[in-house]
Amino acid sequence: MVERAGFWRRGVAAATDLILAQMALQALVALLFAASGGHLTTGITFYSSCRPAQAAPAGVTVPSGFAVTSQSLCTSRFFAPTRAVYVAWHEEKAGAVTTTTTFAAPTSPDGSTAMRVLGLDALFYPLFVLLRWASDRFAGGSPGRRLARIAVADLGGTAEGMAFARLLARRYARFAWIYVPGALVVLVGAVVEAGSGTASPTLAALAWVAQNALVGAAQLTAAMAIWRHADTFYDAPCGTVVATRLEIARARDMAPDAASPTGPGPLLDLANALWLARQRLPWVTLALAGVMIVVFAGEVLFPWAPATPAGLSVETLMAWGGVDRELAILLGQPYRLLAAIFLHASAAHLVVNLAALLVAGFLIERGIGPLLFGAVFLLGGLAGSLASVTFNPPEMISVGASGAILALFAAALPLGTALPRGNQRRWLWAWALTVCIPAVTPGVTLPGLFVVDRADHAGGEVGGLLLGIIVGLAWRNGLALRPSRKAGLAAAAGLAGLVGITVLVGGLRAPTQSARLVPAGEAPADDAGWERQASQLLARYPDDPRVRYGLALQEAGSGLAAQATADLDAAITGQRKLSPVHAGDFRFSAHAGLGANFFDAGDLDDAIAQFTAALDERPRAELYRQRGISELYRGRGAEAVSDLRQALTIDPKEAYAILWLSIAAERTGLADPIAATAQEADLQKWPGQLVRYFDTKASIDRVRAAAGLLDLASDQHRVCETQFYEAEMRIMHREFDAARPLFERTLATCPKTFIEYRAALEELAGHGGLPPG
């Protein structure tokens, strides 16, 4: 028999045994990692070291649209290596908020190539169970129990001891089965990856749910039972039930904390549970799950733009009703606040939310009723959407039922007090805490999901918690909140109609609207293509805002500034009505692109106006630099210096801004800041060699040699830039006769779209530091 100990002593015992089990797993992987060539690994580690990476290893494909700001090769170790992984980070600043997303991919032990691996983390808890069983059965108690001085009686080979051994084996078999689903999903994922050559993000997400949420809820339920001294293992050696199954219908009738009888085992328990569940299926839960599946099928079958490896395109999500601040609030499309709840960005995203919704349905819907369940889902989802558009950057698109599902779990915290003390209430609270806390914890992400909308999660949880408190208070005051049959049917029909209309408005408009746009296969790849083909495309696709934008680019290059501005305004207005791309993104790129064309055409005043409009949408370093250069050649040196300093505030490593700030400061009569600003630049990477030239006044021949510019054919773009900035340095030294031919050679070698080409024209025209003549 095992001594009945208190919560803290048993907690110390469990923590000790968990650490030992983790050390055993790490030792196993350390032995197998090198022998398997790095294919057998673990995601949990005691120690990890990283070194900067210059590029992604061979075979590693960073998801489309993931702009890498830093990257490393990391190795985890125990007494030997246990894991090798490439990690990339993307940081994006929007005001005071910095959003960080991470991408990781396993590599070979030396970090040179991508590698398919099998993680052995699923063995961790089975090892823990095996350690506990073997030590209790054969060693008189586990190391943790010995440390906590919890006595385990040695019954030897007596009849009582043999009976105890059988009960002990059944106890640990019941305790271990909760870890089986996660191990099975991992195994299936390994088989799929071996057969197809690529990992399944959907199975990876499902494995995360099984290995973390399910196991976490079970362990928390067990801890609650131990805290209440309600575990039957210590009362009679038959095994605990709090960590193995739900008390589905019996919890309401059982006495609080009553010990479960010794029955035939978990299989019969599961069969009884399924039979009881069939009699009262959570129909609203199943209906909501069905709507989510149907809508996702629509997204896949009727996309606006091709999907990416990370999931459906942003264009498709926006067309079907994705929510952001501008579209939902400022442009009068509030239906998106509700439509976004039923959209998902990938199959992995959908599977995770479906699993969470089904758990919530079987735990909560029968207790609060289907109508109230549906109301909490929808109202909590709306609260999450409102929080998303309020607190997220304006360009962040939000989709998914996470906020609505978290509202259900959050509502369960106050509503659970209406249940009798026992396993059902413990499971309900354990699931609520296991799901709600990680959902709003920074840094916690799911496989296959690169961006987590924590504002939506927090809004859903707060909304659900408030709804749960209100309903709980109503129950305590004797209000049943259960409508009559007719009222319930009418409300259910109204909710169904609301959902149906929302999905129709958000989704069925996509195929009809996409027919009015240039198909993806015909659409030009860049601004230059839209400019070239705009006239031909206008006859067939007059409503496509991108065609109008192409016309504006043509007109800007032809000196038709007023017409270009009018066509750009028409493109922006049309985009609001038709195109699914985020309105702010379109305005930003359109103003920036038109400003560049005005600059190339020498229309600096209109270029400055367009750059200013783009900066109102997004503060970007390169645009401050471009506007500062335009200001410089319009004779506004102070404004130019201010813009170039702002560019370096946003991105201190922006080498071209460092060069132009040095030029602008010298012409404005300010001290040259190159000595301070050059410290942030990468002087080994182009144009860092030019920054070093400006800073140290080294020989230009050394710059050419360091950049590999031994002849004009080596790299035309670098040759062009070298000639231009050498000319600027000559101007600083008042060597005007030497600068003029360098500017002329710049015109011969630079593409006309280069800033240096237009700047050389301005210098030769006497608008810069070069005297006329």
TrEMBL record:
Query: Which UniProt key words apply to this protein?
Result: Hydrolase, Membrane, Protease, Serine protease, TPR repeat, Transmembrane, Transmembrane helix
Q: Quote the SMART domains the UniProt record gives.
A: TPR
Main location class? membrane
- InterPro entries cross-referenced by the UniProt entry: Peptidase_S54_rhomboid-like (IPR002610), Peptidase_S54_rhomboid_dom (IPR022764), Rhomboid-like_sf (IPR035952), TPR-like_helical_dom_sf (IPR011990), TPR_rpt (IPR019734)
GO term, biological process aspect, one: proteolysis
Residue intervals passing through the bilayer: 172-192, 204-227, 283-305, 337-364, 371-391, 397-416, 428-452, 458-475, 487-508
Q: Where is the Peptidase S54 rhomboid domain?
A: 332-471
Gene Ontology cellular component?
membrane
| UniProt source species | Lichenibacterium minor
Spell out the subcellular localization from the entry: Membrane
Protein known as: Rhomboid family intramembrane serine protease
Q: What is the protein's membrane topology class?
A: Multi-pass membrane protein
Q: What is the lineage of its organism?
A: Bacteria, Pseudomonadati, Pseudomonadota, Alphaproteobacteria, Hyphomicrobiales
